[in-house]
Amino acid sequence: MKANQIRSARRRRNSGSSLAEFGPALFVLLVFMFFPLVDMISLGVSYGLCLVLNYNQVHEASLLPFADATNASGTVMKAIPDQWKSGMGKFVKMTGDPQTVVSYRAGETGTDNVTDRLVDVQTTVICNPWLQIPLPLLQIPGINAPMTFAVTGERPMENPDYAKP
Predict the structure, then answer these.
(1) What is the count of structural domains for the chain?
(2) In this structure, how many other beta carbons lie within 10 angstroms of the beta carbon of residue 71?
(3) Residue 105, domain extent
């Protein structure tokens, strides 16, 4: 029995260093892999939700007259973002409110000499990362600094006469 105890003590002494390396390895894994990955996933979700906001805005702008679509307190620039912020926008960690720019341009001219009008809606949202990872002297968007998403959508006007100011 004495020889077995000596062998097991030797085995423990030879492999005991792995326990001492576990703490630093776990720290490196969490700080440099897990937390940045969580931030990237949260920013991906935020980008998808910003796309949904822009899609809803461009759809509504294609149905409304020019004066209603470009009104700062109207449906496209105010009501839809406010409704989005109280719904899906709750999952986006934003700085300020979404900014919207609505513009129009001429499309293709058909055989009947009628020119289509297209509405462009650009939505800009400044998103913060879900976890602020403190990195001294570095400001990396998406890791420890805000990231700006500018999403543009385009759609033909339902009634081309609505695109005239």
Answers:
(1) 1
(2) 15
(3) 2-163
